[in-house]
Design a protein that fits this description.
mainly alpha; 2 domains
Length: 115
């Protein structure tokens, strides 16, 4: 091999090495960008996850509050059957007593007089 050939080969090897270094630097920069994007994505996922947890907690609190309000409303609106029957009977006795008192207090009508 002549010195000119060796020099040409050395230049060619040097050019290829420079190309490979450029490609390696380009790949390294791409990997760095990917790492940064992955880090940003991880942070975003963590933020979304914490918001989701807060929303779930608020939803659970509101469901518990709704249940408590329904129980309280049922206590206010629902009737006690035994108490309602007793009140009805008391009202019926009072009504019957009023009718009897009115019958005794009012003078007899012509129809009752003729019987």
């Amino acid at each position: 091999m002549t010195p000119d050939e060796a020099s040409a080969i050395a230049l060619e090897v040097e050019a290829k090495r420079d190309q490979l270094l450029g490609i390696a630097n380009f790949i390294s920069a791409g990997i760095t960008k990917l790492d940064l994007a992955r880090f940003d994505l991880t942070e975003s996922l963590a933020a979304v996850g914490s918001r989701r947890n807060r929303i779930d907690a608020a939803l659970a609190r509101s469901e518990n509050a709704m249940f408590a309000l329904r129980v309280e409303l049922a206590e206010v609106e629902d009737i006690d059957i035994a108490e309602a029957i007793m009140n009805l009977q008391v009202e019926e006795v009072a009504y019957q007593a009023t009718l009897q008192a009115m019958a005794c207090a009012l003078p007899p009508s012509l129809a009752s007089f003729l019987r």
